[in-house]
Write a structure and sequence with these properties.
Blueprint: H1 2-13, H2 47-57, H3 67-70, H4 75-79, H5 83-94, H6 99-102, H7 113-117, H8 123-137, H9 146-157, H10 160-169, H11 192-211, H12 215-233, H13 238-252, H14 255-259, H15 266-281, H16 286-305, H17 315-322, H18 327-336, H19 338-355, H20 360-376, H21 384-390, H22 394-419, E1 437-441, E2 444-448, E3 460-463
Antiparallel strand pairs: 1-2, 2-3
Length: 478
């Protein structure tokens, strides 16, 4: 998608030490799989400032904020004489949504799963290891030569300590990642690659275990991968939420090989279903993501106020805007109209956050109306940043969240139906607003009506594993 290409290109071209490298892909997108919208590391504000901010971001308590983080206190917004904008700021502060308020202290290390997850692998090697593991995942184990298969197993064996550490960390009561919202889009999110690698290793472990018929080990690996996606998604940072959606999609795409194995058991299907059900029970609200996105947008307007519009734009956006504006003049124009622009942005985000509290199928129509309004105002000098830069990515982000949830719900329905844990098939798809379609053919349960491209031709198939004759299946809610 255009949004994904923008962010990937921007990350590759504007990367500094410590910046998140999530847009680093092979062949333009295989690492990310789906779409990771929003502004991927698009800062050029005084390279030394950014590097300083990035190095401090991973510390539990920064000894002194960098100039980039000083902008997170919203000095320009607080000096504004725009009365409605000041009222909007007061409202956001009351709900705890400013960059400062979202930059929360970290729990004690022994209670915080993130303290282990952000340091599983050597930082200087994590990028190489992500690429190396990705290469192994592109080829099914049964297509590897003997020496290649042994090399893959040796690679996996070298990660046994990290895998054990990860499992122990997931037992801790809290998981708070070191996210400095006060640094805006320039925050150091390099730790995300640690989580990406941890999930990919579990995918590799599952693939190798399935090839050897060790289905218990494969189930364990995929359950851990799903739990890692869950902790990553339960943050308010949009980039982490969408990275988690991408990783979760990759994990779900591992399930068909597992469940189609002739020796798959009813208990194995139940273990995966239990993990999915637990994740759904603590599924993060979409509104929380947009509260975090709004805080990043507020930081971006601080850059606009000091004449750093370029640091809020990707390379492609610069090219697009150059077709309509003299960019030097646009910098001055956006500075002049920053208050009006930000007020419009915040009022629109207020609507987005409100609508995000409803299922996607109920909010989609309202989002379309908002998008039409943004397109109509996209050439107004007073709303250039809001309507040409920040708000256009909202629809893609909303759809990404909705598809993520629909995929998980569909797989849970399929697994429960295959086990005959439920007696009715009227579970409503939150993406479409209609029940999933459940059919049984040739002793296989098929779930369609998902609204995404998951599964074969948009349908998930799981072989039936009913309870033993004479036993009563549990009645479980999906």
């Amino acid at each position: 998608m255009e949004c994904q290409d923008l962010r990937q290109e921007a990350t590759r071209q504007r990367r500094c030490d410590g910046w998140w490298k999530s847009a680093r892909t092979s062949q333009g997108g295989e690492r990310l799989g789906r779409v990771i919208p929003w502004r991927l590391a698009i800062f050029g504000l005084c390279l030394s400032l950014v590097v300083a901010g990035c190095r401090q971001a991973s510390q539990p308590v920064a000894p002194s904020p960098s100039p980039l983080e000083e902008l997170g206190r919203l000095p320009g917004l607080r000096r504004s004489t725009h009365p409605q904008l000041s009222e909007e700021l007061a409202r956001i502060e009351e709900e705890g949504g400013t960059p400062e308020q979202l930059t929360v202290p970290l729990p004690p290390r022994e209670d915080n799963a993130a303290s282990a997850l952000v340091a599983l692998f050597p930082k200087e090697r994590v990028e190489f290891l992500v690429a190396q593991t990705s290469d192994w995942l592109r080829v099914a184990p049964d297509r590897l030569q003997k020496e290649e298969l042994q090399a893959a197993k040796s690679l996996l064996q070298s990660f046994q300590t990290q895998r054990a550490t990860c499992r122990a960390a997931l037992l801790r009561p809290k998981c708070v990642f070191p996210i400095r919202f006060t640094a805006g889009f320039g925050a150091d999110l390099s730790f995300v690659d640690q989580c990406v690698l941890a999930v990919q290793i579990e995918h590799l472990a599952a693939a190798l275990a399935i090839s050897e018929g060790n289905l218990d080990a494969a189930v364990d690996a995929l359950n851990v991968a799903l739990r890692l996606c869950g902790v990553l998604s339960r943050t308010k940072h949009p980039l982490l939420r969408w990275q988690a959606a991408s990783l979760r999609r990759q994990t779900l795409d591992c399930l068909p090989t597992l469940v189609s194995h002739p020796e798959i058991t009813r208990d194995a299907l139940g273990q995966i279903a239990d993990t999915l059900q637990k994740e759904l029970a603590i599924w993060p609200s979409d509104a929380e993501t947009w509260i975090g996105a709004r805080a990043l947008g507020m930081h971006a307007y601080e850059l606009v106020r000091i004449g750093r519009l370029y640091d809020v734009l990707t390379e492609r956006e610069i090219k697009q805007l150059r077709q309509s504006y003299d960019l030097e003049e646009l910098v001055r124009t956006t500075q002049e109209h920053a208050d009006q622009d930000e007020f419009y942005y915040l009022t629109q985000m207020r609507e987005i956050i409100k609508h995000s509290q409803k299922p996607y199928c109920e909010r989609a129509g309202e989002l379309e109306k908002l998008q039409a309004a943004w397109e109509h105002k996209s050439h107004d000098d007073e709303t250039v940043v809001a309507c040409r830069v920040l708000l256009p990515e909202v629809p893609t982000g909303q759809k990404t969240q909705a598809e993520d949830l629909a995929n998980v719900c569909a797989w849970l329905v399929a697994l429960r139906a295959a086990r005959e844990d439920i007696q009715s098939w009227d579970t409503v798809n939150p993406l479409t607003g209609r029940p999933f379609i459940v059919e049984v053919q040739d002793d296989t349960v098929y779930v369609s009506g998902i609204g995404t491209d998951i599964g074969l031709h948009g349908a998930i198939g799981v072989p039936r594993r009913p309870p033993p004759k004479g036993s009563q299946p549990k009645r479980e809610q999906t």
